[in-house]
Amino acid sequence: xxxxxxxxxxxxxxxxxxxxxxxxxxxxxxxxxxxxxxxxxxxxxxxxxxxxxxxxxxxx
Length: 60
Known about the structure:
Radius of gyration: 21 Å
Strand content: under 5%
Shape: elongated
Number of strands: 0
Low-confidence stretches: none
């Protein structure tokens, strides 16, 4: 038999969810802005491809 979550568990879930939501906004901005800029700099410098980085490529 299962029981409903306690108030402590509900409070912890709410706190964790609030914190996660705030961090997720920051993470998305980091990936969208900072990481994109870094990848462009790497491409411009001729850095070799690295896992997770999508190269700029055009057929010659």
